[in-house]
Design brief:
The structure holds two protein chains of two kinds.
Chain A lengths: L2 H12 L5 H13 L1 H18 L9 H14 L5 H6 L2 H33 L9 E2 L9 H5 L2 H8 L1 H6 L6 H5 L1 H17 L8 E2 L21 H12 L6 H11 L6 H14 L4 H9 L3 E8 L2 H14 L3 E7 L4 E8 H12 L3 E5 L9 E10 L2
Parallel strand pairs in A: 3-7
Antiparallel strand pairs in A: 1-2, 3-6, 4-5, 5-7
Chain B lengths: L2 H6 L8 H8 L3 H23 L2 H17 L10 H23 L12 E2 L2 E2 L11 H4 L2 H13 L3 H12 L4 H8 L3 H23 L3
Antiparallel strand pairs in B: 1-2
Helix pairs in contact in B: 2-3, 3-4, 3-5, 4-5, 5-9, 7-10, 8-10
The chains are: A alpha+beta, B mainly alpha.
């Protein structure tokens, strides 16, 4: 063996990792070769030096630091934002999708509920209003057309019910009274048949629109229905609607008295059937009263009444100006009602109708009709 | 050179088995016991590999954290310590590369005169008086030896550290480094030879 080969194996030789025959060869060589012996010695010393290297001590904080990081890892206390948004590539699209979904559902729900909500809302369109006979304005054609029906309805109340017509709750409750009144009216008609024309009605713009009127105040039927009734009735008696319109102004002077007409009108209203939607609205607003104010200047009085309502903290104030009258509806607290009526007296003669102040509780719907007067 | 082999002979059964299975169940205290047990050994391996105490500390922390994260994947094919050493070794080698690319590391050249506080050392033949090794303080010797280790290529270095400093058996080194026995042997020979030459230069004689 050459020195080179011997030296290659010296490392393994030191550790006793060489084959026994090699071991013998190396032993023999080392005995004779001083250079290789030196190399072996140096290698041995190198090992000793390495072995004697002083071990380093870990810093005292190292274990704590490691464990702190490990505990952090074990209980990942993610921040609120991190929980919400991380990992971004998963949660952000998910959240975006959820947002869109919520928006879509919200729109659908709103659209589904909207029609029902409309039913409950106070309509912007007014219910038919009864004009007073003293109205200085000449009756208009559409108004004239519908003059007859109320009376007819009154007269034919019995047959209507027998025919299974849909009659209002309010009507049923006042049925008895209406019958009595009917007789009175019929008697009056006999005395002065065209007196019916004293009662003028304005047509309802929309039959489906619920009334703002209080429960006790029944509403006129839609024109269509009124006409139907009218047709069935024309055979009996009473002039045709246009004819009635024609006579209306001329009968004015024949009217017995304003009070009588008012009473009759009231009775008429009670007897009339209500459209279903109207009844619903009436049920929703059980409290209410109607006030009629006679004023010289109805426009001015209307404005004053509105500002008065505002002062008293009324809600949903709605004013409808017409040539013949001013109708204001509003929701007002019952305790303010008395004050309101007192102040309205300053504007003109006040008639309270349909409900007494004492019977009102909490919020009530008030309907103020301002008509031209003394 | 082989004294330590006997010391480090371990039973084939992993005596860390209990602690490791506790760790897998999420018992942090068990892991703390393992940290306590191995932190010094790991630090020394890392330190000898890297040659920088602070860097070695960081590597050891990272290694334990990495071990904790993947302890559930540890199936016990090797001993826990072997597995942990291989983590430390890999992280140390990565750190060495980083340091090298940073250019912040000055390695000892085998041929250049060794630098000491007193200046450049001459390559004198050994004289008759007490050897330089004996005159120098232990600390100083360690620093020079470490300098020579740092001068070795990482593949020689890891074999040398594991065998001659940590005293692992060839089988263990093979497991840790995942290289065949023959490779371990040849790397060791080259590492020792190179180191011997370096030490002769920096220490004067052996």
């Amino acid at each position: 063996m050459e020195c080179q080969d011997i030296r290659k194996n010296l490392s393994a030789y030191l550790e006793g990792m060489v084959a026994p025959e090699d071991q013998e060869l190396i032993d023999q060589h080392l005995a004779s070769c001083r250079a290789c012996s030196t190399v072996l010695y140096e290698l041995n010393r190198t090992g000793e030096v390495l072995k004697n290297l002083k071990e380093v001590e870990p810093p005292p904080w190292m274990k704590q630091k490691i464990m702190a990081r490990v505990r952090e890892e074990a209980e990942p206390k993610k921040g609120f934002i991190q929980k919400l948004f991380y990992p971004l590539h998963i949660k952000v699209p998910l959240e975006a999708f959820a947002t869109v979904l919520i928006a879509v559902v919200a729109v659908y729900v709103f659209k589904a509920v909207e029609p029902q909500m409309k039913d409950l809302q106070i309509p912007s369109v007014r219910e038919p209003v009864i004009a007073r006979q003293e109205a200085p304005y000449p009756a208009k054609a559409p108004a004239a057309e519908t003059q007859a029906p109320p009376k007819k309805a009154l007269l034919q109340e019995g047959p209507l019910k027998a025919g299974g017509k849909d009659l209002g709750v309010a009507e049923k409750s006042t049925e008895k009274k209406a019958r009595v009144d009917e007789e009175v009216a019929v008697k009056k008609l006999k005395e002065a048949p065209p007196a019916i024309s004293e009662i003028k009605t304005l047509p309802a713009p929309s039959p489906a629109s619920p009334p703002t009127a209080p429960k006790k105040e029944a509403v006129l039927p839609p024109p269509a229905e009124a006409f139907k009734i009218g047709e069935s009735r024309t055979a009996e008696r009473a002039p045709s609607p246009p004819a009635a319109a024609g006579v209306a102004p001329t009968r004015e002077d024949k009217m017995a008295s304003a009070e009588g007409a008012a009473r009759e009108r009231k009775e008429l209203k009670k007897a009339q059937p209500m459209a279903p939607s109207l009844r619903m609205a009436a049920k929703a607003k059980p409290e209410g009263m109607s006030i009629v104010v006679q004023a010289k200047d109805i426009r001015l009085a209307g404005e004053k009444a509105v500002s008065l309502l505002n002062q008293l903290g009324a809600l949903r104030i709605d004013r409808l100006s017409r040539e013949s009258n001013e109708v204001i509806t509003a929701e007002i607290k019952a305790e303010k009602m008395k004050e309101l009526v007192e102040k309205l007296r300053l504007l003109g003669e006040v008639q309270e109708k349909d409900a007494s102040l004492a019977s009102l509780e909490k919020d009530a719907t008030i309907r103020i009709e301002i008509v031209p007067g003394r | 050179m082989s004294n330590r082999v006997e010391e480090s002979v371990q039973t084939p059964a992993d005596d860390d088995f209990q602690l490791v299975s506790s760790c897998r169940k999420g018992e942090i205290d068990a892991f703390e016991a393992l940290v306590e047990k191995y932190q010094k050994k790991m630090l020394n391996v890392a330190y000898r590999m890297i040659g920088d105490y602070d860097e070695a500390c960081e590597v050891v922390q990272d290694a334990f954290l990495s071990a904790y994260r993947s302890i559930k994947k540890f199936r016990g094919e090797a001993r826990f310590s072997t597995w942990l050493y291989s983590i430390v070794m890999n992280l140390s080698k990565n750190r060495m590369k980083q340091i090298k690319t940073r250019g912040a590391r000055e390695v000892y050249s085998i041929d250049a005169p060794a630098e000491t506080e007193e200046g450049s050392m001459r390559r004198d033949p050994p004289d008759q008086g007490p050897s330089i090794l004996e005159q120098m303080e232990k600390k100083e010797v360690d620093a020079r030896v470490q300098g020579c280790i740092n001068g070795l290529d990482s593949e020689y270095r890891e074999a040398l550290v594991l065998r001659d400093i940590q005293g692992f058996s060839y089988e263990e080194i093979r497991d840790i480094l995942k290289v065949p026995d023959g490779t371990v042997k040849s790397r060791l020979f080259r590492a020792r030879d190179a180191l011997k030459e370096c030490l002769k230069k920096v220490l004067g004689d052996l």
